[in-house]
Design goal:
mainly beta; 4-stranded antiparallel sheet; about 375 residues
């Protein structure tokens, strides 16, 4: 199974890069055209976070709890920073292959590792609270509601651990797709429900107390004659607002679901492995080919599409103020208008690329580069 997953990653990398089947020659990223900046991105602070994302396809995402930002690198260098100054409050060097993180909440910092361990640290001190083994690699941040820690593993299982001790409370079994992308989205956890997207394009909702299913909904049906053509992972993570659960699959659809029933309220063809943003009644998606698209939730029609970042392997979209921000493989942060998708600013962040979706908190934009550079930005 692991070999198949690795083969799938190679195939998808070729598709995304726009590899020509005739010439076998990889097409280069779309060259960037000069833009007229309409806003100024002010760098409030920056710091280095060890080895960053490492050489594998990791998406280690920072997280904020109150006024503290938590971040880890691939080697287990975990730091708590004052989110306004970047000053380190504590740092732990776990010397572990971290592949899932960071999850925060209820006084805990949560990480997952390549060898299938979940680690809970004290958010105030960085000291170990507990460590627990799960069924396979953890490639996305665990999530908690203070009562249970929910982990999604690479083998498509959803596991509930006791937040106080790390002991397994329940496990929700799923049969993974024959081939899938390397990675999973992070589960979403509310007081009573855990949501997750699977390699089979299913979205599931389970009871956090016992792990019992509440509903499941398939956002797309695999098509094609080969298993490569039938890859439909929901890998970019889910987005939950008061009335809508947003999901997008690779080679499938972007959809808005009723979080109570799982009913599909609207959907549109799309292919993405990096997630969704939302604002002004629109959903924003970074497509696998590099297109950034705004979709009207009422009609499921595209309000605008920006194709100027083709083959640049862009990150998921972060919505802040009146803008949408995405990073690219060359390390540029691009800021687009929510109104019409035009570029309003651009800034080079990390020469090794920007894979992680930027994090927006209270008008601040936190951008974590593949090479470990972490930058806090505001609009001036």
């Amino acid at each position: 199974m692991k070999r198949y997953k690795y083969m799938a990653v190679l195939a998808v990398a070729l598709f995304v890069a726009g590899c020509s089947s005739a010439s076998k020659k990889e097409l280069k990223p779309q060259p960037l055209e000069k833009i007229t900046a309409e806003i100024e991105l002010k760098k409030e602070w920056s710091t280095s976070v060890g080895a960053g994302q490492g050489k594998q396809w990791n998406t280690l995402t920072p997280a904020v709890d109150g006024d503290v930002l938590f971040v880890t690198d691939v080697k287990g260098r975990v730091s708590a920073l004052d989110r306004f100054t970047g000053k380190a409050l504590w740092t732990r060097k776990l010397k572990l292959d971290v592949s899932g993180g960071v999850g925060v909440g209820s006084g805990m910092v949560l990480l997952g590792t390549l060898d299938g361990n979940v680690i809970a640290l004290n958010a105030d001190t960085g000291e170990d609270l507990w460590r627990s083994s799960v069924t396979s690699e953890v490639l996305a941040a665990p999530a908690t509601n203070g009562d249970v820690v929910v982990v999604q593993t690479q083998d498509d299982r959803l596991i509930g651990l006791e937040a106080a001790t790390g002991q397994q409370r329940w496990i929700y079994e799923n049969t993974p797709a024959v081939l899938s992308l390397r990675g999973t989205g992070a589960p979403l956890v509310t007081d009573y429900v855990a949501y997750a997207g699977l390699s089979t394009a299913k979205i599931i909702a389970v009871d956090t107390q016992r792990g019992l299913p509440i509903w499941e909904q398939r956002v797309t049906v695999p098509t094609g004659r080969t298993e490569l053509e039938r890859i439909v992972d929901v890998d970019g993570g889910l987005l939950l607002t008061d009335n809508t659960l947003y999901a997008v699959s690779y080679q499938g659809r972007l959809a808005g679901l009723d979080p109570q029933s799982g009913q599909v309220m609207w959907q549109r063809e799309a292919s993405s492995y990096v997630g969704v943003g939302e604002g002004f009644g629109n959903a924003y998606v970074s497509l696998a080919d590099g297109t950034v698209e705004s979709v009207d939730e009422r009609s499921a029609t595209a309000m605008w599409s920006n194709k100027d970042l083709l083959r640049r392997e862009i990150s998921g979209p972060a919505v802040f103020s009146s803008y949408v921000a995405v990073g690219d493989k060359e390390g540029y942060l691009h800021v687009l208008s929510q109104v019409d998708g035009r570029f309003v600013a651009r800034k080079k962040i990390d020469g090794k690329g920007l894979r992680v979706q930027p994090l927006v908190v209270g008008g601040w934009l936190y951008v974590y580069g593949n090479g470990g550079k972490l930058v806090a930005l505001t609009i001036k």
